[in-house]
Specification:
Distance between the termini: 40 Å
Number of strands: 0
Helix content: 55-70%
Oligomer: single chain
Number of helices: 6
Structural class: mainly alpha
Length: 143
């Protein structure tokens, strides 16, 4: 059941990305182009996501355990460090330049959106590098 609920959530998310137009990198880049061809539709998608997520988090906090797991895996830290800021900056710069973040990029693969075949491999390489760097940092701090 856990597999099917995960699959359903992924299909629903991907469908939402395609229907909202977020699988099109030009949509994101036009949102970031404040003094050119600005497109506010991404703001409405974000507001819709917040409108769904807020009640979801409220419901999660009311339950003792999740439906398909033994425990919740919620963030325990609330502080900021250099790794978090650098990661967020890298993500934002990549998102602005490429017009994709991981979910829409993978969703755009079947519709062969412009640049997807370059962005997704570069994203996967970046993820592998980040994992390697994070493991190296973790090993240094744990000694």
């Amino acid at each position: 059941m856990k597999f099917f609920s995960t699959l359903l959530a992924g299909v629903l998310f991907g469908t939402g990305l395609v229907v909202s137009g977020m699988a099109d990198p030009a949509k994101v880049q036009n949102f970031l182009d404040l003094f050119g061809r600005w497109d506010p539709s991404l703001a409405f998608v974000m507001l819709g996501a917040i409108g769904v997520t807020m009640p979801g988090f409220w419901l999660v906090q009311k339950r003792a355990t999740p439906f398909f797991s033994d425990m919740f895996h919620l963030p325990q830290r609330s502080d900021y460090d250099a790794h978090l800021v650098a990661g967020a900056a890298t993500f934002g710069i990549g998102w602005g330049l490429g017009g994709f973040c991981p979910g829409p990029a993978i969703t755009a693969l079947p519709i062969t959106a412009t640049g997807t075949l370059i962005f997704v491999p570069a994203m996967l390489i970046g993820m592998a590098i980040a994992k390697y760097v994070a493991l190296g940092v973790w090993c240094e701090t744990s000694n």
